[in-house]
Amino acid sequence: MFQPRIPVNPLPTGIVTPLVQPTFTADIAPHHTADAAACNHHHAPAPAPSSAVRLTPAGLAVVVAGGAGAVLVVGAVLVSMLLAVAVSAASVAVCAVVLRSLLNGQQRRR
What we know:
By secondary structure, the protein is mainly α. The protein has 1 helix and no strands. It has a domain at 80-110. The chain crosses the membrane at residues 58-77, 83-103.
């Protein structure tokens, strides 16, 4: 069960994928295939994208509430993990004290 097994490869199918070696050239020139506008129509220019995100007061309140909620959830998780570590440390300390008293009691009886 614990000994490694070598996988058996299936029989070859006859389809061989060729190995392609990349070729690098020193001068790479852009290739233009067609003109940008071949028609005689006049189109309006595209609007410039806005540079900043605009938030309404309601949107800002939602973002602040979401951030505060995320901070509270992360804080609760971290506090619960700290509490779990503290409880574990206390139980280990109690076990150590009990074992120490038991071992000291056995040495006194001898």
